[in-house]
Amino acid sequence: MIEARTRVGAETRHNVLRARRMGIDTYQEPVVYMRRDCTVCRSEGFESRSRVRLSTPTRQIVATLNVVAEHLLVSGEAGLSESAWQLLDLTDQSPLAVSHADPVESFGHVRAKLFDRVLAASDIEALVRDVAARRYSDVQLSAFLAACVGDRLAPDEIVALTGAMVAVGETLTWDAPQVFDKHCVGGLPGNRTTPLVVAIVAACGLVMPKTSSRAITSPAGTADTMETLAPVDLSLSHMRRVVEQEGGCLVWGGAVDLSPADDVLIRVERELDLDSEAQLVASVLSKKISAGSTHALIDVPVGPTAKVRDGDAARRLGALLERTGAALGLNVDVIQTDGSQPVGRGIGPALEARDVLAVLQGHESAPADLRARAAALAGAILERGAVCAGGQGVQHALETLDDGRAWRKFQAICEAQGGLRTPPVAAHQAPAVAVRAGRIAAIDNRRLARLAKLAGAPQAPAAGVELLARAGDRVAAGEPVLRVHAETPGELEYALEYLSRHPDLVGIDPADREVRS
Fold first, then answer.
1. Cα-trace Rg, the chain
2. Is pLDDT at 11 greater than 80 in this prediction?
3. Cβ atoms within 10 Å, residue 436
4. DSSP letter for each residue of 318-356
5. pLDDT digits (tens, 9 = 90+) for 363-377
6. Model confidence pLDDT, tens digit, residues 456-479
7. What is the pLDDT of residues 420-443, one digit of tens each?
8. Do 73 and 79 touch, CB atoms closer than 8 A?
9. Neighbouring-strand partners of residue 62
10. Are the beta carbons of 61 and 115 closer than 8 angstroms?
11. CATH topology of domain 180-417
């Protein structure tokens, strides 16, 4: 009798390869690379894009297979993307067992939803567990996101989805009767009020453990902007210390395992440039509940080129947010705000960070609209938290900015998170000027956001667009209206070429609608 099977974890030696770090950034998608003549690949019948299970004695993940030419790997090696390498916590040439991934049974619920079947809460729970465990391929995740677009999810399904997203991650608790949070549904470039609101609210003695996302369809998320000012990739224990010490924090939610399924979905939403209403509600509220919030203020900007186009749509979204929050024990207040044009001057992480600092430090050049919006939102929270009487919140918030308390609190929060730093400045800049004199009639939020993204934001932190004039301002012929910032000449050229095709991005008077780059 002979025995040819030596176990590595739960696998056998004939399915074991040596792990090699390829240094390829696949942006959170675990990928494994195998030679086309690999004996494991051939004996198991793997093909490119197959889903395979990778196992070590202590960890296990499911990854997408890419088949490569023989010269790229040594025989017996399996190459791993950065995401897969970090999830498995490997050292070079570690033994790695490779086998077929189990079928993802919950994907049947996605198929059913695509055909408009109503899902039970248990169906949604199984689906979200598999998403959080990274058992879904990107193609399957895309199908799930498509199944949630429009009004495909009923209100009860959205409640179930939100609750399931909370259940698969950590949930924080705080030694405070009221814990506040704030979120903007997006669609309005430069609306970076969150750092200001956290600083004001925490300076006034309320608790606000703010976890924020990175950009999904915008040129910057709050986490992207804050990362130019302080570390945001904090552990749960570090986040807790910051909040217990300072009353608030500004961290990336993806680093603290709060609603982890949401972070998996956001990665694919970004590539699809898709942010459906149902996913928006589940994403926002699951993060708030997971962070231990008792109250959440939701800012819904409304405007012709914002994400929410009119008052009726804002009211429907607001009602859905309030209903879902109430069903899960979260008090939700929704405020409609002006979404007709961008907020502040900067569009992009570092440019928005400079606006935030200008408001906190009381500079004369600070954007007045950003200061006013932040005071309105912070004031609503201060009134809800009984810091001041009804109707006095805005004034109280402005006083907290003016006397320096908010700036001191912001500095303290940044220091507790790892140290305040200076936002970077783009090496390449170019203005866009008005072709003729006139009054700025409108600024297209969506195209402006697209311009900033083509310049490199948010991946290039210093990139974006700086607004030099606002709707209603009069400009002279040849006067700069905006300035494009980029970290490389190529990205600057991409952005300027887009601007040349869309000169009505800034509309100048009914008859004079052009800008020239």
1. 25
2. no
3. 15
4. HHHHHHHHHHTT-EEEEEEEE-SS--SSEESHHHHHHHH
5. 999 999 999 999 999
6. 999 999 999 999 999 999 999 999
7. 999 999 999 999 999 888 999 999
8. yes
9. 53
10. no
11. Pyrimidine Nucleoside Phosphorylase; Chain A, domain 2 (3.40.1030)
Bridge partners (DSSP) listed for residue 21: 80
Selecting among 181, 224, 275, 369, the annotated active-site residue is: 275
- The predicted model gives 140-155 an average pLDDT of 92
Domain ranges of the chain: 7-100, 107-167, 180-417, 428-516
87-116 burial code (b ≥16 CB/10 A, e <16):
bbebeeebbbbbbebeebebbebbeebeee
CB neighbours of residue 399 within 10 Å: 16
CATH architecture of 7-100: Beta Barrel (2.40)
Distance CA 107, CA 104 (A): 6
Choosing among 3.40.50.1950, 3.20.20.150, 3.30.565.10, 3.90.1170.30, the CATH entry for 428-516 is 3.90.1170.30
Placement of tokens 């606000």 in the chain = 208
Tell me 308's DSSP state.
B
pLDDT at 501 over 60: yes
> Could you write out the DSSP letters of every residue in 8-19?
ETTEEGGGEEEE
N-terminal to C-terminal alpha carbon distance within the chain: 80
Question: How many Cβ atoms are within 10 Å of 485's Cβ, its own excluded?
Answer: 28
107-167: CATH number: 1.20.970.10
CA torsion angle 253 254 260 264 (round to 10)? 130
Residue pair 150/276 in contact by the 8 Å Cβ criterion: yes
- Mean pLDDT lowest for which of 147-156, 239-248, 424-433? 147-156
Full-model pTM:
0.85
Element (H, E) at 377: helix 368-384
Nearest CA among 94, 313, 388 for reference residue 375? 388
Residue 359 in 3-state DSSP?
helix
pLDDT at 488 over 70: yes
Query: Three-state secondary structure along 81-147?
Result: CHHHHHHHCCCCCCEEEEEECCCCCCHHHHHHHHCCCCCCHHHHHHHHHHHHCCCCCHHHHHHHHHH
**Confidence category of residue 482, pLDDT binned at 50, 70, 90:** very high
Return the closest-CA partner of residue 32 out of 9, 60, 7, 57.
60
pLDDT value at position 238? Answer: 95
More confidently predicted of 306 and 195:
195
Whether 275 is catalytic = yes
Average pLDDT, the chain: 91
DSSP string, 209-267: EEEEPPPSSSS--HHHHHHTTS-----HHHHHHHHHHHSEEEEEGGGTTSSHHHHHHHH
